[in-house]
Design the sequence.
């Protein structure tokens, strides 16, 4: 009995939503797929991949240099003074910190460049979606990709009326 009541209440509450949707034209698009297939995006992704490869190569070469020095210093440690060994240990620690710092900087730079490169392309896609939607008379365009949202909302916005109802 309680379950039927809840179902009936939910149905009554959703009925106006169905009427509102019936009055509006709604379309959808998978923006992730659209963007991933844009030639400009593919070109920028290749550019970013090349930059990432460059950073990776530099980090790898520096790490190999570090390993070579560490092995060399370890092999020579018995024949060196304590002061020399401590200085070498400090040098290795500094190299390791520099490698970590460079890795972090490279990662941040890649993220920054990705945002710089992709933002205009996302805007271009959004503008094209809005242009086509308006030309075809759609009130709403929903993003059908995972975690998508509303891309365009030309329908009635109830914000002012709801705020008034709530008293603010």
Sequence:
């Amino acid at each position: 009995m309680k379950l039927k009541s809840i179902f009936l209440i939910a149905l009554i509450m959703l009925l106006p939503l169905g009427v509102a949707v019936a009055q509006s034209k709604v379309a959808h698009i998978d923006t992730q797929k659209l963007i991933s297939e844009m030639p400009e995006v593919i070109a920028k992704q290749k550019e970013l991949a090349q930059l990432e490869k460059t950073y990776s190569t530099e980090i790898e070469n520096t790490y190999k240099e570090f390993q070579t020095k560490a092995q060399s210093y370890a092999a020579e440690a018995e024949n060196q003074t304590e002061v020399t060994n401590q200085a070498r240990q400090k040098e290795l620690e500094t190299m390791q910190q520099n490698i970590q710092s460079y890795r972090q900087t490279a990662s941040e730079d890649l993220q920054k460049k990705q945002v710089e490169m992709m933002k205009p392309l996302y805007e271009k896609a959004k503008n094209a979606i809005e242009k086509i939607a308006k030309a075809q008379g759609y009130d709403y365009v929903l993003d059908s990709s995972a975690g998508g949202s509303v891309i365009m909302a030309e329908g009635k916005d109830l914000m002012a009326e709801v705020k008034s109802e709530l008293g603010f």
